[in-house]
Amino acid sequence: MRPDGKLVIILLWLTASSPLSGGTAGREITVGVLAHRGADTTMEMWTPTIEYLAEQISGHEFRLLPLDLHGMRAALEHNELDLILTNPGNYVELEAGYGITRIATLKNQNHGRPSKTFGAVILTRTGRDDIRVLADLRGKTFAAVAEDAFGGFQMAWRELVDAGIDPFNDFSTLHFVGFPQDNIVFDVRDGKMDAGTVRTGILEGLAEQGIINLADFRILNRQVDNEFPFLRSTRLYPEWAFAKGRSMPDALASKVAIALLQMPDDHPASRAGNYAGWTVPLSYQPVHDLFRQLKTGPYAKTTRITLLDVIRHYWHWFALMLLLILFSMFFNIFVKRQVNRRTAELTKEVAERKRAEEESRKLLSENRFLIQKSLAVQEGERRHLARELHDELGQCITAIQADAKIISQCAPDCEPHVLTSANAIQEVASRIYEVVHSMMQRLRPGMLDDLGLVDTLKEEIDAWRDRHPDTLCQLTISGDPSNLGDEANITLYRITQECLTNIAKYARAQHVTIELGIIENQPESVTGSMDKAWIRMVIQDDGTGMDMKSHGSGLGLIGMRERVEGLYGRFSVVSEIGGGTTISVYLPLTPAEPATS
Ligand SMILES: Nc1ncnc2c1ncn2[C@@H]1O[C@H](COP(=O)(O)OP(=O)(O)OP(=O)(O)O)[C@@H](O)[C@H]1O
Ligand SMILES: [Mg+2]
Q1: What is the DSSP code (8-state) at residue 125?
Q2: For 326-336, what is each residue's pLDDT tens digit?
Q3: The whole model's pTM is what?
């Protein structure tokens, strides 16, 4: 019967008194034994040994637990084993994985020949002339116990590797048939398999029982050794180990070791287990060497981890990562699309806005140009009208005055009322001349051309003061605004005229200041302009002020702004009710080129 991988729990309650009694009291000791030939056989073989231990060490209950390789690892995982009896390969793995420590090594009883070491035999049929050395096994069928069976496969594996054969790739079939190993011998004998491997002693045992004939088998890679009594193909390795688990107290383990070493070779327990007592624990270094060379057992994890192993072990993390990657990819694509779409929209919007700005800049420029033109036309018309008034009306009035004078000179010869009328005509004509002259001045101040801006302003302000003696009006000049050009001169003059008119009409001011000058630095309200020097005019009064939200339907302020902006200047009005009014004008000293239509 083969172990089926589950924990096979068979309890054996054994209590007795013995020479080694005393010390650690009342502990139940579980002994896990590798059941490589099935639980029943294991119980049969090892129960007497456990009974022997129970006899020798009193006060403790011993429990025998037959386990397969997997079951043994599971039991140690849960710290359920105090003592472990297992093959050397398994021992080395458990020593590395679970910290078990050997306390004795088995002396095997092979047909009256005790042995502390064992090996494996690689066999084929005698008639197979095509298989004489291990290398001949390439492409053949091969039987073994299991991939993790130490004597039943791994010992042969090492020799095969040394002979250049990789059992997992170079055989046509690698068949793991499990326990008992006798079946491998039969399969090779009966031609079902080309070759196979079993542990040493199996062949001799079957032959002694008359089940097989040794002459039917050829031993490959045969090792000749006078001390070791069996046919063998591999190196020798220490026999099974009796070990203590991590939780087993040292004192108690020592008692077990002493009891085992004291067991006579021919004790009934030895005979039942088909062994010849126990020896001090051997070195299991050869087993380590084998595992290290084959990169298996405790050396498998560090050297034989494949990507597939990692994926198998961490598949849920990989799946999660994959999901996250997919999610972030989709998210990226989605975001990128959105960004691209929005960028395209924004680019379009920006282009449209630029076009609109360009359009409005062009319109503004054209508008300024038109204003300048219309103002120039207006000024031209005014100049023409002034000339007409002067040339036509002025001449006529002068003529009337002259005629009236002639009439008055001959008055003594005339009627007295004729003299009166002639004098009246002269007076009216003078009056008309004054009015016309004043109109001519307002239409086109001749002084602007003759005397320049500053004197014309002084003249204008003086005339204004005469008309409004209650208001103090001061003109301050800074820098030299004598050469500003026709357009700037007429603009500043008209603005002064309109401001003084408004102050007279609305402000009821006591003080008026008019500042005119040149500044070198660009005013704060002007950004982006390249002009360095500016004309600055500020007209300030302390009158009633005005409501900036609604300043009527007049054209004065609008006209001022249009004139200034037409010359690429800046115009601003600051006023509040009761707080006076300040009108600021900045004109670039060298105006920008007007747009051409
Ligand atoms: N210095 C000032 N003090 C108080 N209010 C003022 C002053 N200047 C202008 N205003 C107010 O602003 C309004 C607009 O002035 P604006 O010169 O544009 O028009 P107007 O003088 O009413 O008419 P127009 O100038 O066309 O003959 C005026 O009606 C007045 O109420
Ligand atoms: Mg006005």
Answers
A1: E
A2: 999 999 999 99
A3: 0.47
